Amino acid sequence: MSDYKDDDKLGGRFWLGVAGLAVGAVCIALIVMIIFGAFWSRWGLCGALIAFFIVLLGIGWLWDKREKHRRAGYSTE
User: Fold this and answer.
1) Residue 3 confidence (pLDDT)
2) Nearest CA to 54 among 68, 62, 21, 65?
């Protein structure tokens, strides 16, 4: 018998986490596709793309605003 312990294996908790992330990503993608499809059916492709990019710009603006406040403490000015 060998006293070798194989610590390189990924446990069940890791794989449950991976599966949970995959299910969450699929759910988010499905919701985005349903919303984009609703926009497309109401306003056509051009309107749906404009609405989609406006939403992305809003998310980016909020992200930058949050990062600016978070990094304000690191400034040397």
Assistant:
1) 60
2) 62
